[in-house]
Amino acid sequence: MARKVSKKFIESGNRWKKGESGNPGGRPKLPADVREALSLAAPDALRFLVDFYQNPKNPPNERSKVAMYLVDKYYGKTPQPICGDLNTTLKIVVLDANAKIEDGVIDV
Fold this sequence. Notes:
6% strand
């Protein structure tokens, strides 16, 4: 999914420097007590989801969502193919951080 970048953002030059990370420390780790609590609750949560799926009294669309969630977690999400004509030219536009945009025209 393409990210929308505002004209103000482009003109401000507010971008990461080449080779610089926006999150150098990475994702914070869960505290040990929280990780332990989640691992203890996981079997009950799984049992709840399976019971919900197997109960015919639950709405079919909700059972279907649970089934898809369980399949995705067990097998992993299926790869999404990229369709298109491979014989066409791909046009890539790279904007300079210092570029100015006026009336839809980019002045670099």
